[in-house]
Amino acid sequence: MASDGAGRLLSLRDAIDALYRRYNRRELIKPDPLQFVYRYSDPADMEIAGLFAAVLAYGRVAQIEKSLDRLLGKMGKSPAAFVRGFDKTGRKELQDFRHRFNTGDDISDLCQLLKKVLEDSGSLEQYFLRGYRVGDANIIDALSEFCNWLLQQHARTNDGRVGRGLKYLISDPVRGSAAKRLNLFLRWMVRDDNIDAGLWKSVDKAKLLVPMDVHMSRISRILNLHNRKNISIKTAVEVTNGFAEIEPADPVKYDFALCRVGMVSGCDNWQELKNAISGE
After folding, report:
1. What tens digit of pLDDT does each residue of 193-206 get?
2. What is the distance, to the nearest Å, from the Cα of residue 186 to the centroid of all Cα atoms in its chain?
3. d(Cα 32, Cα 40) in Å, to the nearest integer?
4. How far is CA 123 from its chain centroid?
5. Helix (H, G, I), strand (E, B) or coil at 211
6. pLDDT at 209 over 80
7. For 27-61, what is the HEC assignment?
C-alpha cells in the first residue's frame, strides 16, 4: 500500500470504526442479498441459501431480491433438503427460472454439484477445507481449488463440457477474476458479527479478501489503496493488504459499512468520502 494510502486510511480510522458501529446492525441488512441467509435457522440451509444468494448477487438490487425470492421459494422450506434430494423433478421445477443471463439449467447444474458435495463432505465448509491451508497468505488458492473441483466434477459427467453460465456462477480467482461474489459468500460464512453469520469456524478471517465491486473499487481508489482501471484479483489483494494495515486480523471488517456508504453517497473524491464516512 502506498504511504499516502496508509495515511489516508489511518486518518479515517476512528470515523470508519464509528461507521462500522452505525451500519453493522442486523436490521440494516436489507436490501443486501445476505438477508436471504437469515430466512433460515438451520446452518445447513443458511450455507446453501448463502451460496445461491452470493452467486446471483449481480445486476440491479431489486432484480437480485426478486430472483432470490423466486428461487428459494421453489426450493421450499429447506434449501439443503432440496439440494440433497435434487433429481429430474427438481430440474423441471427450476426450468423457467432466469436471472439475467443465468438460466434454470445453470442453477440445476449447480444444484447437482452441491448434491455431490453434501454426499461426499456433509457441508460446503468441509468441502472447502479440502483445499484450505493454514500457511497460505490468503484465501485465493483454497477458493481456486474449490471452484476447480466443482467444475471438474461437472465436466466428468457432461462429456468434458462446462457451460458459460456455470463458469460465471463459479468464478475461479486464479483466472484473474476478482471473484467478488464468492469472496462475499466467504465473508458471510467466516466472519461473525451482527451482520455476518460466522458459520464456518475453521477458516481464519485474516485470510479473507475484500469483495471488490464498483463501489468498493471507487472508495479504495479515493483512499489510494489501488490505482488500477480494472477490477481483478490483484486489485482485491492490494486493497485487502491496505485494510490489513489497520485490521490485520480482520481486513474485510469494514466491507459492509463502506459499500453502504459507497452506494448511498456516490462520492468520487477525497473530501466527499471523508464527509460521507464522518456523516457530515
Report:
1. 999 999 999 999 99
2. 6
3. 16
4. 17
5. coil
6. yes
7. HHCCCCHHHHHHHCCCHHHHHHHHHHHHHCCCCCH
Q: Output DSSP code: residue 192.
A: B
Q: For 65-93, what is each residue's pLDDT tens digit?
A: 999 999 999 999 999 999 999 999 999 99
Q: How far is Cα 14 from Cα 16, in angstroms, rounded to an integer?
A: 5
- Give the other-Cβ count within 10 Å of 186's Cβ: 27
Instruction: State whether residue 208 is helix, strand or coil.
Output: coil
Tell me the angle at which helices 140-156 and 104-121 cross, rounded to the nearest 10 degrees: 110
Using DSSP's 3-state secondary structure scheme, residue 212 falls into coil
pLDDT for the residue 3? 46
**Would you list the domain boundaries of the chain?**
1-28+210-280, 31-209
Helical H segments across 56-172, by residue range: 61-75, 79-84, 88-93, 104-121, 124-128, 140-156, 164-169
* Type of residue numbered 35: Q
Three-state DSSP state, 255: helix
